Please model this.
Amino acid sequence: MGRDLVPMLARLSLHRVLPIESTTSVDGLAFTGASFGKALRHFGVELTVLRADVVPREGGLVLMWNQESHLDHLVLASAMPRPFFSLYNNAIARFPFYGEHMRTTGHVHVDRNDERQWRPAVEASARRVREGECVLVSPEGTRSWDSRLLPMKRGAMSMATEAQRPTVCVTVIGRHARLPRGSPIVRSGPMRVVFSDPIEPMGDADALAVRVAETFTRLKDRFALG
Model:
């Protein structure tokens, strides 16, 4: 049986189930992951995380995930094995409470409609990664309507190539069945998060885009839900 996402999130917020911590610190990630895991269980989502042991625990790292659903925000924080900051778009920036939380806790707003804004934001993010932080970014830039991969955006690939640190693909499987784009109803059932082996730094953004798309496709096929 489905559950409506918006009223459920409102109730969880009122009961302090949703956190005000940030994923940019060890303690904040632990609190956020536990709280968002509790929210997923409210929705009846059974989350399995695979191959987290391949993620480097130290040094700069770029995490890229295949974007499909608003459930991503709950799932990714529950699955991540190390603290991270993320790049977020205009829709998240405008979202009540959550947008303000992202602005004040070390995450980076990228307005892809304004080159004067997004270019320095991407450059600053690459610098943080070079200095040892971990960044989470959606290379597609928006949610897919049908679970198929969208074209890889050049901004994410440029940031990764400029950072010159490994990239790990975070493949989330099963979200379209749980919460497709355009629907407010979360349907109970299984989901998986699968981490790829690190992709060594590349100097060509287009070549990296091909490699990332191939990795998402391969992991989705290999670890598909029966």
Notes: Strands lie at 2-4, 45-50, 61-65, 85-88, 108-109, 134-137, 167-173, 185-187, 189-195. The chain has nine helices and nine strands.
